[in-house]
């Protein structure tokens, strides 16, 4: 390029209409006279040289070597399940096929397909070609209305404006925590509880306080312990019902007691209800929002579990704003947070109304019947195994088993126990240390029935091989 061209520049209009074709000759020299401190002329034009740099030129410091590091948020993000499982030595017994009772995905073994009506709804949405573009960040209005209609009840009425559609229930939980909490705040989380709560909170600079669940009371909350953890920086109480990992279902009376604690301390509730309505016959599981008169609640749910399509990534937040405690600010905050990404899959949104309205009750009943049957098989088989203390669930897809480690001196802890169970019997159960609750392990009851029976038999064989009576037990036997 000639030196003559190098001394020319083009004027770029700040309203974005483009570049003028007529060169603007620099008559002021390179000292910046006639140009404000931002390189913009008083006539509203941005002054850009032909080679693309602003002038007057400013010498900038530069790095002398590459130094790219992960952010603090990335470094603070840790999934407790992955932290434990990735460190385990999982080498199955080559003589026995692997049975994984560890994965909370009901689709893994193919024995629990979703209903044909659900598939047809999705096919219809695809064929319509109406849902190939961007949707509003909070979801299509029609789809939000379908969700509000499905979950609205006289005790907890909803309309479309009370629904935020999300990319799975996990994003719903993330948005709910993010809108309620600031760095330095704390949230109350069940123990044992879903590990994602801590993963999200800690990465955001939010402290996690674990409140105890009581296995001897079918995993009810230790309300006294929970209340003792509340302070002026407690910004959210997470209640998981039905429970992962426990499979427990809180009754009306217990939910009312939880609400009294939240009301007394003016703490809003994040209700993780992804397993809503997945309760065994004879149990009743009202939504906690339907029982609340003054506590505001963000209820998180989705299609993943009840409709058996976790990969479709369709979740939602239901905003139950008792006495307008949240007001417009929390709602606006959720909208702003939803705009960080473009939310839930539009195709599934397009199918949502049909999925909710046309899935037959028989499909739900069949799923629940299977889960209850498998839970009963597992509980019955393991209840008679010395050293094991299973807790019968009332819903969801899980069963927790206590370990009397005094009877298993070959193992250091539940992680060691479950690791060796894989090595010897090719059965993988998730050690409850992943849920910060040692000396238990979690079983997923979605496997085919014959596989459940086989797995329980192998667990029995494993425990019989390693069980050791206490010294006092031996003395009793000698007598």
TrEMBL record:
Alphabetical UniProt keywords: Aminotransferase, Phenylalanine catabolism, Pyridoxal phosphate, Transferase, Tyrosine catabolism
PROSITE patterns reported for this sequence: AA_TRANSFER_CLASS_1 (PS00105)
Keyword Transcription: no
Enzyme Commission number, as recorded: 2.6.1.5
Keyword Transferase: yes
Modification N6-(pyridoxal phosphate)lysine occurs at: 305
One Pfam family recorded for the sequence: Aminotran_1_2
Location of region: Disordered: 1-25
Molecular function GO terms recorded: L-tyrosine-2-oxoglutarate transaminase activity; pyridoxal phosphate binding
GO biological process terms on file: L-phenylalanine catabolic process; L-tyrosine catabolic process
Family annotation (InterPro entries): Aminotransferase_I/II_large, NHTrfase_class1_PyrdxlP-BS, PyrdxlP-dep_Trfase, PyrdxlP-dep_Trfase_major, PyrdxlP-dep_Trfase_small, TyrNic_aminoTrfase, Tyrosine_aminoTrfase
Purpose: Transaminase involved in tyrosine breakdown. Converts tyrosine to p-hydroxyphenylpyruvate.
Biased composition (Polar residues): 1-18
Subunit-level organization: Homodimer.
NCBIfam families the UniProt entry points to: tyr_amTase_E, tyr_nico_aTase
Gene field: TAT
Family label: Belongs to the class-I pyridoxal-phosphate-dependent aminotransferase family.
Pathway: Amino-acid degradation; L-phenylalanine degradation; acetoacetate and fumarate from L-phenylalanine: step 2/6
EC top class named in words: transferase
Domain Aminotransferase class I/classII large: 97-459
Cofactor(s) required for function per UniProt: pyridoxal 5'-phosphate
Reaction equations catalysed: L-tyrosine + 2-oxoglutarate = 3-(4-hydroxyphenyl)pyruvate + L-glutamate
Name of this protein: Tyrosine aminotransferase
Matching SUPFAM superfamilies: PLP-dependent transferases
Species for this entry: Anabas testudineus (Climbing perch)
